[in-house]
Amino acid sequence: MRFVLRLERTSVYLLLSATSLLILYPIALIFISSLKTSPEFMADPFGWPKVWTLDNYAAAWHSANFSTYFGNSAIITVLSIAFIVLLGSMTAYGLSWNFKGSKPLFSYFLLGIMIPIQAKIITLFILLKQLGIINTHFGLILVFIAFNLPMAVFIFFGFFKTIPVELKDAAQLDGCSDVGTFWRIILPISRPIIATVVILTGLYVWNSFFLPLILLQDKKLFPITLGLQRLKGEFSVDWPLFFAAMVMLMIPMIVLFVLMQKQFIKGLTSGAVKG
Amino acid sequence: MIVFILPSAVIYTLFAMYPSLSGLYYSLTNWDGISPGYKLIGLDNFKEIFQDPLFYKSVKNSFVFALLVVVIKNAIALGFAILLDKKLKGTGFFRSVFFMPAILSAIIVAYTWVTIFNPVFGSWQTLFQAVGLDGIAKLDLLGTSSTALYTVAFVSIWQNMGYAMVIYLAGLQTIPGDLYESAGMDGAGRWKQFLHVTFPLIAPALTINLILSTVNALKEFDLVYILTGGGPFDSSQVIGTAIYKIAFEMNRFGYGIAMSLILFFIIAVLSLGQLRYLKKREVEY
């Protein structure tokens, strides 16, 4: 019996380890290959680098425009997150007052989750063109805000419902205006929920490919995801340089994930209804 | 109050809701997206869709892709969730590793597997050559019509298995341990325990996972676009990439919009149907 148990435990660990290898190996391959020179990679795509080099990163950053792409991704992500958190929490706070019509309005805000992105992308392209904000960060960020508001409103609303009314009343008695109560009382106690929304929308925007592909044409405005696709599309791609560029896209998220695994897993799965 | 809601309401209505509605109108036109003029052509786009081989091919591919991904991914994810729900050493590590691909951009995942399956220097080739299976080593999985779609499905499962697993784990943790104890005392073996205790009680997690995976698989775009571009010869073309091709490569906006409305309709019917069925099932237990 003991033997059987041990055998079973060993096979469970073997299975778990094999699966971990299947998941980690491809990512490790990209990392390690990005540290090889191009001739070495073509000659031996697998072994450890004989000469470790960061030249691919320097080349990607300077001559392949990835400093620009990285900056664009950062700007787009930070601004989108900031406005999604601000507008999402404001809206959820307003809706949590239970005025006449607040329920249908709440449902209206959730409706967006139901509609797949392909069902509005073409008309969205037309709309941004008509408004003259196609091919601008401004237009793209507005779309990111609009697409992520339903999720943010939903998450904030769920949290605001749990805040005791007495807290708001006390603040108002102390002479706080509505805006003051929201800014000084409600937002500070919402920090854990803000973290959830930041992680959820941050990953969505930083990793997004489809929306920028449709809404941006000017190379100078590209985020990293589009920069990668463009680099790959060029006549002959320098693979280690390409891998270095891939690492630039994934490293911020992997570092954050390793540092804050719990918040990431909780944040991403609390968005489990996201469409 | 209005101050709090108005800015969001304007942005959301204009950029998320209005485009869906105006699509209803544009789907009745023959607009190419470039020229200033277009004509209203009634239901001609929809009539054409139902005679378009590309439409049937992409719908079929989307269904095959969704079925494979949903069934295999959820079976594996549930299995691992049960293994990792036990008090083994290192479960935290394995959970994090399995979840990690979910935080990566689909673009990264796709290019990583493009590298692995590269016919010149891919790991796939080297691995199977090393063990003497030259026939398998020579397969160009992404570049062959008969394997392209299945390879994309594999990559999708690779990326999203851990996410589904975490949702199952959350479900498993709500099951009280003494239920298993009493089931064990009644003489139920492990398979019976799974069938009569675990499976019924994780019904809500199952509902979420099945609906999420179905919807996401039906609107897949990024992975297919990067891994195969829908090829070779449309063999891995799914609805999402077909719409893109029609609208932005063939410049048929009106026609593409009509097709995107059909995609919306398919997703809505399937997910609402699933939801009703699974919710009913949840109640029965």
Q: Provide the CATH architecture of the largest domain in chain A.
A: Orthogonal Bundle
Tell how many strands the DSSP assignment of chain B holds: 0
Beta-strand percentage of chain A?
under 5%
Counting structural domains of chain A, the number is 2
Mean pLDDT of chain A: 88
- Could you describe the largest sheet of chain B, including whether it forms a barrel? none
Largest interface: A-B, 86 and 79 residues
Descriptive account of the structure:
The complex is a heterodimer of chains A (275) and B (285). Chain A has 275 residues and is an all-alpha fold. Chain A has 2 domains: 2-33; 64-270, MetI-like (MetI-like fold), CATH 1.10.3720.10. In chain A, 77% of the residues lie in helices and 0% in strands. In chain A, α4 runs parallel beside α7 (137-160) and α7 (137-160) runs antiparallel to α10. Chain A starts with a helix and ends in a 5-residue tail after the last helix. Chain B has a domain at 43-98 and 148-284: MetI-like fold (Orthogonal Bundle), CATH 1.10.3720.10. The radius of gyration of chain B is 23 Å and the shape is globular. Chain B contains 14 helices and no strands. Chain B has 285 residues and is an all-alpha fold. The mean pLDDT of chain B is 88. Helices cover 73% and strands 0% of the residues of chain B. The interface between A and B is large, with 86 and 79 residues.
